[in-house]
Structure formats: structure tokens, C-alpha cells
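task queued by scheduler; priority normal; single chain, no ligands, no partner chains; default sampling; output format set to C-alpha cells
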Amino acid sequence: MQRPHGHAPIAHGPTLPFATTHGASAQGLRKRGLTSQAPATRSLLRRSLRGIGRNLGLVCLIGGLAGCDSIFQRGLGPREGLRPMAPPADLQTTQTPPYAPTLVAHYAEAERDARVRGLLRQGGGGPDSPFTARDLARNFATIAFQDEHLVSLGGGGQVLRRWETPVRIGISFSDAVPAADRRRDTDILRTYAARLARITGHPISFVTEAANFRVYVTDDQGRPAVRREILTLTTGLPPEITELLHDMPLGVHCLVIGFAGADPARYQAAAAVIRAEQPDLLRQACLHEEVAQGLGLRNDSAAARPSIFNDDQEFALLTSQDELLLKMLYDPRLPAGITLQEARPIITRIARDLVGGSS
């Protein structure tokens, strides 16, 4: 997707990563960006991760959100250059972000431009963006099953992938992130995790330790420490991904890296990296999309509306249709690993149950 955020890859096998970018499929590295340079990078990462997945058991997603099921088996506690998330009362209030002025100006202009064009809507949809059960079923098949830029791994790409174990989401910040932004992003993520748990019925919680889905909010100066930490947590990370973590193009606002274990259809860990230099709405948009995609909605669809899983940037935050897509993803009638062909009649029934009607 050419949105303000992105995904990372997901890997399966002993401590192996996955990567997804905007619109990527399955697990993997996903990036999100508002500029036109993101798609080419995403495609490159997706192809690379697919090949790695075949050799090492990785399942990769490139689009903005992604995770590797084994990346957190050793824990993702903050290391040098990273501070653990502290309760708001413990945060200093006099911090000034020493971000690069050019980056701050670039992302502020990107948000202003999107808003002027009527994009980055926050309402979740409405009368101007109706959808039917047929729309929902079609979009779910595309977003949850198809791997647009990744080769199939572990016996086929068009299978349902999701978490079967509890998801524990934590957040860390680079030293430059000011206290106000830390408090805001922490509160958003805590509330969002609770919302995702209600929507999916899956155990999803916000934690301050022992996270298996770590969100890093970091500026350019702090990102090398994040990269070093991720590299110590896994093996076989493709050079394209390590380079992306080291030198993120302007068009990549965020990404997610995920891992799967012996079963590539079941995620076990994930890590999202979000640019701290972005204004509030773009950071929140990154949080919403990367975490949701790290749960298993790994692709994008130009037909999905209202939805954040769409390259058109119209919606910034999780929409009413996105909530239903997440409900379907974790519906027990659709087991992890089921193929799209097997799932189609079930998808149709679930969509009708959720939306009503036959069209």
C-alpha cells in the first residue's frame, strides 16, 4: 500500500523472521508510505522473503505490518539506545525531540496534503462507503489469503495465517521521543489492544514486559539500535530487510516483521517499527495498520472500502469493515492453515452472518 505505514515479514521455523510491507500477504515485512517509492521496495522485499522462506521456513509479508513468530522467543527487551516503556508518571515532561527538521517537515507536509485531498479519514466509514456481504467475502479472500508479492512458503501461499497463542503487545521508544508522544502512543496502543481483543475474541493484551509483539517508535538516530536488537533475536534476516531497518526510505513510514514457528500458518512473534518523526495522526495510522496486519490481515485490496487495507489512503484508522475482517480472521469456523479453496463457502456464510443478506 502507498499509505503512511507498512508491514514486515513473517517467518516460520526455529527463530526465523517474516517480513511484510503495505499490501503484502501472509507473514513478513510490510511498509506503509504516502510516497510513490514504497511499492517497488515492498515488491523487492516480498520476493526476497519468499525465497528465504523456502530455504529457512520463513513466511514474509511486505507492506507495513509483519512479524516473525520466533523473533520474540528470546524477548525484545530494550537494549542500548532504547528505553523500556515506563508508566506516564515516570516520564519526563521537559524532553524536546531532536528530530531532523527536514524529516519533521516532510511528514507534516505529507499529512497536510493527504488531509487537503480528503484522505486519512478517521470516522471508520459511513453512508458514503457502504459494503455488502459479497464485498466483505471478496475482500477477506484477498486480504487474508493472497500474497501479492511473496512466493508461497511451506506448501502454499493461499492459506489462512494468524496467531493461535495469546498476543502480548508492548511498546518501546527511542531516547529522542518526547514524554507527551510516549504517553499518547502508549495510551493509543493500550486502548487499541483491548479493542482488537473484543473484536477478534482472541487473547490480545497490552503488556509492559514479556511482549511477543513489540512496537518500536523510533527516530532515525534510534533505529540502528532497533535493528541491532532485532538482529540478535533471529537468524537468516535477508540483507534487504536489514538494510531497510538501517536506512528506511522516506516513503516508508512504518513496517512490521513477524515470525512463525514450525507451522507457517501460526504466528508466534512480531515487531513493528514506526517513524517517530511523523505527526500524531500518521503515527496512529501506523499503529492501527501495522498491528492489524501483524495479526494476519496481510494483503491490500483496491476494492476494499472503507478499509485501511487499501493503497488509496482514504482511511487512516481501523474501519467498520476492517473490524468484520478481523472477526472473520479469528472465527473458529476458519482454522489456521485452511486453503482459500476450502474456505470460500465458509467465508460466504460468515460474511452473510455478519452483514446480512445474500448480496
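post-processing summary
- The first helix runs from residue 38 to 56.
- The CA atoms of residues 252 and 282 lie 12 Å apart.
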